[in-house]
Amino acid sequence: MLRIADIRNGPESVAATRGHGDAVKLRPERMRTYCDILRTMSHNSISRRSFLGVAAAAPIVSAAAQGKHIPVGLELYSVRDELKHDLMGTVRAVAKLGYEDVEFYAPYSRWTEAQAKDVRKLMDDLGIRCLSTHNDAQNFTAENLPRAVELNQIIGSKLIVMAHPGKVPTTLDGWKGVAERLNHAAEQLKPQGLRAGYHNHEPEFKPIEGQRPIEVLAGNTAKNVVLQLDVGTCVAAGSDPVAWIDKNPGRIVSMHCKDWSPDAGYKVLFGEGVTPWKKIFDAAESTGGLEFYLIEQEGSRYPPVETAERCLASFRKIHG
Q1: Torsion-angle region of 127 (φ positive above 0: left; ψ -120 to 50: alpha; else: beta)
Q2: Rg (CA), the chain
Q3: Residues whose CB falls within 8 Å of the CB of residue 264, separated by 6 or more in sequence, listed in order
Q4: DSSP 157-171
Q5: Taking the alpha carbons of 139, 142, 145, 147 in that order, is the dihedral positive or negative?
């Protein structure tokens, strides 16, 4: 655990404790603050209560350090054909594989209230949850957002993600417009106990006018707008997912675990590509604020349900 002596000795000593199994994650500027506070206290007079008072102001440690279980779910686009023909049967099959949650995508917005309630009952019976949904850009309009709120509240989702901006902007001003829509939605969703999020693809990581659109989105949206990281498209675009996570602490609440390789693209199974998953997991859980993982697969050499099963097995082996 973090020792008072380590803090008294300075930031370097605190950081060094990570090499001995501790998972305390302090940003340098915050670390210096706590060290300075404790150095002003007498070595002989500091009490347990005094130390706990200071520690209470420290950043929250990683989910793994707290012993918090991080669920892994499936983005149902991975089994889109099965879902189209048998919604309930597909959800049952996914739960049977061992997935803990699911992410419904655009077609869910056409459900009736009764259908949404039936889906919720099924998930409750199966012990599986829906933590987020993927939405077309039009669900973020003033006309359609209330409907998305209604459906998400019924099925238990807490995060409404813009899966695509619609027509992809070709200028930075265009991306700032997307950011404005996200901010407006976030303001409307907060009183409802919901959050807005954005899901990236390759174009967001490819510079235009000298800047990556994803940086425009992050810099022009409120901190409570989730940046759902699609790892595979980030890697395919030539960007470093770990660096992106570290640059946006607390905002990578959800992550699409999709692999990629130069030869097979997104058709590789999870763990078969070039993605540095262990480093990504560590960054996501210690810095990113990750609350749940989602496996996504665009296709492979196996049938979709078997693909989902193999990806989950590989995830558990790599993540631990």
Answers
A1: left
A2: 21
A3: 272, 273
A4: --EEEE---SSPPSS
A5: negative
Point out the residues of the chain with pLDDT beneath 70: 1-67
> d(Cα 181, Cα 164) in Å, to the nearest integer?
12
Residue with tokens 């980030």: 234
Q: What is the 8-class DSSP label of residue 265?
A: B
- State the Cα–Cα distance between residues 127 and 98, nearest whole angstrom: 10
Tokens of 155: 């099925």
Q: Which two tokens stand for residue 227?
A: 């940046």
How much is the pTM? 0.81
Please tell me what DSSP assigns to residue 320: -
Mind listing the domains of the chain with CATH numbers? 4-55 (no CATH), 72-319 (3.20.20.150)
Task: Give Cα separations from 186 to 145, 160, 219, 228 (angstroms).
Answer: 11, 9, 15, 14
User: Cα torsion at 211, 252, 228, 64 (round to 10°)?
Assistant: 150
Q: What is the pLDDT of residue 155?
A: 98
CB 252 within 8 A of CB 240: no
Intra-chain end-to-end CA distance of the chain, in Å? 22
Strand pairing of 195-199 and 72-75? unpaired
Q: How far is CA 186 from the centre of its chain?
A: 16
pLDDT in tens, 37-85: 333 333 333 333 333 333 333 333 445 556 689 999 999 999 999 999 9
Strand 101-104 to strand 292-295: parallel, antiparallel, or no bridges (unpaired)? unpaired
CB 195 within 8 A of CB 152: no
52-81: burial string, b at 16+ Cβ within 10 Å, e else: eebeeebeebbbbbeeeebebbbbbbbbbe
